[in-house]
Each structure stands twice: as structure tokens, then as C-alpha cells.
Amino acid sequence: MNKIIDFLKVHHDRFEQELIDILKIPSISSDPEHAEDMHITAGLLKDEMQRIGMENARVMDTGGHPVVYSEWLHASGKPTLLIYGHYDVQPIDPLDLWSSPPFEPVIKGGKIFARGSADDKGQIYIHLKAIEAWLAVRDDLPVNVKLVFEGEEEVGSKHLENFIQKHSEMLTADYVVISDTPMFREGYPGISYGLRGLAYLQINLRGTATDLHSGSFGGLVKNPINALVEILAQMKDVDGRILIPGFYDDVLPITEVEHDKLNNLPFDASAFAKSIGAPALFGEAGYDDLERLWARPTFDVNGIWGGFQGEGAKTVIPAEAHAKVSMRLVADQDPDDISKKFIAYVDSLTPVSMQADIEALHGGFGYITDLNNPGLQAGVRALQKAFDREVDFLREGGSIPIVKVFADIVKAPVLLMGFGLPDQNAHAPNENFSLYNYHKGIESIVYFFEEIGKLKG
Ligand code: BES
Ligand code: ZN
């Protein structure tokens, strides 16, 4: 093992340079103008997989941006890992708030600044470099590996579910491993054993055929913006509890063990509030802060529009009003079931003078990994060894909807070992990735292969 760790030291600078090279490609999945960059990035990943000794490396069609796949399957009798990550990145706007151009990586204060550095190119490179080190030093891996890197995570993994169904034979595995989450605090490795799900919808309310003069018609018709805010005001009570009938039916309560783990983490509510510029935090009554963030569902209005927004005043009753809303879900809530319950509730609240049209935009299930899972325990040992610190047990407020699809189709537990940090600015200007975490992450995965290789396949 020492020889592999030595290899990491010798190639430390090159590993950074290779990450810089892929960060230069603007693989923004949502922007059709970057379609070619998606192919260039996929091609670079395929070449890199081949170079380090992965086999069967190919760029595979999905109907959207391609998946890059490769495998190394010579550890007979050993477990098989399916390592998933994404090479697509979020858009860069607002560009003027970046301190350096998003696709010209800069290293400052031990961090590399570039779009996609933490989410998720830096994290997929951790796995490539760990595999490279094993194969270069030992010409062997203690575990079978399949790599699946997709290009559509940031746009909801539209084609991946079909791809997984279609190639379910190729994708059989004992564990799914993902590095696409942050750690809780600097210097302390974290294993995330839960993710929230999501149901995202748009409400369109129409009152009349066209906008009306508010003097000639006001008093005789219902205003759709008034109606919309009345409806939205009935989604939560003053204690922050969601009022959609049946909403909490399938929410799994957290166990006492989880509660203890959560309370062991340092969380300073007033410092946190200050760090985000909020006068105080707000959450559902009766729950601890981290429990609210990780283990309780939410309801949020993401956007609301309609009526007159120009300068000055306009006396008008608008014809329509709109809102985008999302609910972060927790295991075992079903996004389709929640969407149906939400639609039925909105319908019940919509006055007869109004027409409601509600579209479900996208969704996904939450996920929980059993804390006693032997693969998770192997991950904990590996992280502890590399960082020389106790491992934080985390759940995440965010979502990776494909996780539940993997769990159901591959029928394997999903292990979330992420190396981001809370201030990584994912999806925001000045996204960054700690280089300490990059190198410790590679070391962790080197140990993880060894640890999980001790388990039976
Ligand atoms: N890497 C994140 C997921 C994440 C975010 C995990 C925060 C833990 C904490 C992922 O790339 C992401 O942004 N997911 C979206 C999913 C959505 C587009 C369906 C999210 O959570 O909003
Ligand atoms: Zn993301």
C-alpha cells in the first residue's frame, strides 16, 4: 500500500494539471451551444480511462449527451463497484460576479476555482486517479470497477433512467459509489447516508380571457394573483408544517441512533444565519436544525409572476398568475404521489371563478443507505485512514434523483462519499474545490478499494 501512496506523492502535480485540463472545457449541459464541448469532454474522459488501464472504454449514446463507460473486471470473487459521476456543469451566469473566468482554472489559497471543480469534475477525477495509482503500481485492482459518467445530471438526468434500463446487464454491481456531495466541515471526512427527493411543479391560474381595467371590473371579478397568494398561503401553517392532506403519510422518522449522530455534529445556528446574511433561521417547529435540513420535507415557492411589473402604476386586473414550487422530499415519500396530493389540494382551494392548470416539471425519490451496510463501513474505515479523523455521518438536503433509480434497477446499495466543502459555491459564481480534499480524496478511494475488496462479491 505504501508504494501506491508514494505514487500519489510523485504524481501530485500532474494530477492537478490533468484536472485543470478538463476544467477548461465548458461542458454546460443546458446550453445547446455547448453540445460540441459535451462530446469533447466525453472523448477526453474516454481517452483518460483507456490511458490508466480501464477496459472497454466507450462514449455511449443516450439520446441526449453521452455517457462515458469503462470497466475493469479481473478481480474474480471480489465485489463490483459501479462508480457514477457527472461531467456536465451548471451555467456560469452571473458572469460579472466571478473573480476569475469560470473556464480558466486558478489556484488560490489551496483551492481551485472553476465551474465544475467541485460539482463534479474534481470528484470524478478522484476516482480516475485512485484507479490509475492501483493499476500503475500493482497492475491490479482489489475490486471490480465499472465507471459511468453522465452528461445530464444538472438538467435532471433525462435520458439516464432509460440508459440504465437498457444496459442493466452491463451495469450489474454490488455497490454504487458516488462522489457528488459536500463534507460537513473542513478537515473532517463525511459519509452521506441520505439524500432528499424532489417534486417540482408549476401552477398557472387564469381568471379572465384578457387583462381588465381595475376600475371598470374591480369588485366583480376575482384577481388571479390574489387567488394565487391565498392558495400558497395555505400550504404551511405558522409553525412551518405543510398542510397538503396526506403529505407526511410516508415520511420515515429518524431513529434515535441517527438523532444522536446528528447532535454530535457542531452546528451554530446564529453563525450559520450570519454566514448567509439572514437575521435568524426559520424551520418547522419541534425539530432540530440539521433534522429540518436533512430529514424533514419542505415546501418552497421558487418563483412567482404575473400582472404589471413595470415602472410606475397601472390599474389592471391581470388575466393570469403563475408560480413555480418545489418540495424537497424524504424517504419514503413518492414524488408522483406527492404531486397528485399537491394538485388535488390546489384544486380544492381554487375558487370557482378561477381556472387552475398545474404541470409537474420533474421529480425524484430521496434515499437512505443502511448505516450497518458493510460497504458503508468499509468507506468509513478508508476515509478515517486517509484523513486521520473520525468520519461525520451526514444526510444531505440536496438531491441526486438517479440514486434511487440505481438502487432499484442495479439492486445495490448506494454509497455517497463526497469531498466537496460547504463553501464550494456549487451552482454559483466562484465555484471551487479544495486541493487538500482532492488529494485526500484520491488517497481515501485508494484505501476504499482495498477495504471493500476484503468483502465478498
Ligand atoms: N451535487 C448536487 C447534489 C447535492 C447538492 C447533494 C447539495 C448534496 C447537497 C447535484 O448536482 C444537484 O445539484 N442536484 C439537483 C437535482 C435537481 C436538478 C433535480 C438539486 O439538488 O437541486
Ligand atoms: Zn449540481
Give the gist of this structure.
By secondary structure, the protein is of the alpha+beta class.
Could you outline the blueprint of secondary structure elements for this entry?
Blueprint: H1 2-10, H2 12-23, H3 35-52, E1 55-60, E2 67-72, E3 80-86, E4 106-108, E5 111-113, H4 117-138, E6 144-150, H5 160-166, E7 175-178, E8 190-195, E9 197-206, E10 212-213, H6 214-217, H7 224-233, H8 256-264, H9 269-275, H10 289-294, E11 300-306, E12 316-317, E13 320-329, H11 335-349, E14 355-364, E15 367-368, H12 374-387, E16 392-395, H13 402-409, E17 414-416, E18 432-434, H14 435-453
This protein binds ligand BES and zinc ion.
Ligand BES binds next to loops.
Could you walk me through the main structural features you see in this protein, from its secondary elements to its overall organization?
This protein is of the alpha+beta class. It folds into 2 domains: 282 residues, Aminopeptidase; 123 residues, Alpha-Beta Plaits (2-Layer Sandwich). The chain has 14 helices and 18 strands. The strands form 5 sheets. The protein has a 6-stranded mixed β-sheet, with helices on both faces. A hairpin with a 6-residue loop joins strand 1 and strand 2. Helix 5 runs parallel beside helix 13. It is globular. The mean pLDDT is 97. The protein binds ligand BES and zinc ion.
Number of helices: 14
**What's the Cα radius of gyration?**
24 Å
Helicity range: 25-40%
CATH topology of the largest domain: Aminopeptidase
Shape: globular
CATH superfamily of the largest domain: Zn peptidases
Q: Count every beta strand, where a strand is a DSSP E run of 2 or more residues.
A: 18
Uncertain segments are none
Q: What small molecules does the structure contain?
A: ligand BES, zinc ion
SS content category: alpha+beta
Q: How many domains make up the coordinates? A: 2
Widest beta sheet: strand line-up: 1-2-6-3-7-17
From the 3D coordinates, which CATH architecture of the largest domain would you assign? Answer: 3-Layer(aba) Sandwich
Distance between the termini: 22 Å
